[in-house]
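Whiteboard transcription, Tuesday session. T.W. wrote the structure tokens on the left side:
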């Protein structure tokens, strides 16, 4: 008989492994769930984040870097133009 877990527990467990970097064995033992169950949740979470509808963290980081560089260029350009006016 399989035990069902709430989405809250699934999210907590996967975040502890994927974001905080805790070991699967430790998280599974703390939450009293099977390691294989936790691995299944982690795999599903990774697939969800890589789906067409989901935006991956890596994509967001790349976009943030590009926008930050563009902002820095605009600040420098505005500084140069302001110096020329006065």
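and on the right, the sequence the group agreed on:
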């Amino acid at each position: 008989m399989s035990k069902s877990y709430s989405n809250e527990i699934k999210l907590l467990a996967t975040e502890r492994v994927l974001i905080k970097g805790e070991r699967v064995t430790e998280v599974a033992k703390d939450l009293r769930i099977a390691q294989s169950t936790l691995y299944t949740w982690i795999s599903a979470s990774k697939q969800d984040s890589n789906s067409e509808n989901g935006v991956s963290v890596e994509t967001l980081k790349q976009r943030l870097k590009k926008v930050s560089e563009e902002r820095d260029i605009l600040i420098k350009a505005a500084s140069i133009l302001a110096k020329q006016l006065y």
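Someone added at the bottom: The first helix runs from residue 7 to 18.
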